[in-house]
Fold:
Amino acid sequence: MSYRHIKIPESGQKITVSNDQLQVPDNPILGFVEGDGIGPDINRAAMRIWDATVEKAYGGRRKVHWAELYLGEKAGEMYEGDYFPAETLDAIRDLIVAIKGPLTTPVGGGFRSLNVSLRQELDLYACVRPLTYIEGVPSPMKKPEDIDIVIFRENTEDVYCGIEFKSGSPENKKLAKFLREEMGVDFFEDAGLGIKPISAFGSRRLIRKAIQYAIDHNRTSVTLVHKGNIMKFTEGAFRNWGYELAREEFADATITEDDLWSKYDGQMPEGKVLIKDRIADITFQLMLLRPAEFDVLATTNLNGDYLSDALAAEVGGMGIAPGANMADHMAVFEATHGTAPKYANQNKVNPSSLMFSGAMMFDYIGWGEVSARITAAFKKTVGEGIVTYDFARQMEGATEVSTSGFADALIERL
Ligand code: NAP
Structure:
């Protein structure tokens, strides 16, 4: 495939898929998007950490060959104002695995969220966010070590589809008339209108991925988080399709809470995954009071967005929370925070969210030694009180360092 601006390094080999498995060479080409705002600062730091860790772990036997891809403001400059060039999507499809920094989205106008568009165009239907306490990280919780949760957030449906009709627009008036006259419903005059599609297909494939993950990683439960008491045919249906899927496809590997009490006297049988559900609002409370009761969560798009930021705050904040957007094989890993424009180009922010997203990426391609070493060096660095500003303001006696200074300190401790 030939590209206009993207250069695929000739020294590397592409990752491929065969027999439903990723085939990863020792010199894989991975795509990266620098991102806007603080993106260049954290990307520079994280890349130095990833390359140094791969070198340490494999002594030159393995090496990543990076291909820069363009989205957001940098793309706009190179592609005559196109912030979302088609060739970047083609390159991600071709390379299969990529990582990205944050991208700017103007609120209430301008272009549509590039992140949402990327997830939808590439059908990256699962947003996976692990939230695990790492010793030494500042936390407002009394027992942060109780938090070891992986959120699977549906990424392509829900109110994020962007099916919205502005108050006063001809489309809004047409839809309002149809709803009032043909569907017999009522609402205030001039209400903005939005549609919340939740399908069996979208819900089932997300929940399937969450249950499979729980089985593969010896997790104990999958909780379906929903607001089905109010939104019965969307959120409630998500819950029902989840139980149905567990029954149809994972009957041997899972039990429900009803089974737990009716058949097992409340004692979890060895090797099974418990499927349960909780309403979204109480889940937020339980995440503060009894997070140890949760393991894998599967939830709809909006709930998952809120929950993952709330939980990130319990284990160190946005500066450290990693994430990935996944299809069946293709995956785009990403820092979960935004572009924090007030800190752009100041070499100030924490590069750990992107760094740990990269660690997830190395796990994904089967290079688990890399993430283990990054986590160990991170614990040492933070344990010695060497941290960026966001941790420094929550820790007594810490030594505040810059983004690049944190990368230097971590690399020394690899
Ligand atoms: P944000 O960029 O995530 O920043 C909010 C606050 O989070 C920052 O002011 C800072 O807190 C903290 N923070 C974020 N990244 C940090 C880091 N690496 N290290 C330490 N602290 C960090 O959210 P926003 O201000 O709401 O959004 C800004 C832009 O980013 C918007 O255009 C939004 O659409 C976009 N966005 C993009 C993504 C994405 O690309 N995936 C995600 C979310 C938002 P303090 O001020 O307390 O220091």
User: Anything to note?
Assistant: The CA atoms of residues 58 and 369 lie 9 Å apart. The radius of gyration is 22 Å.
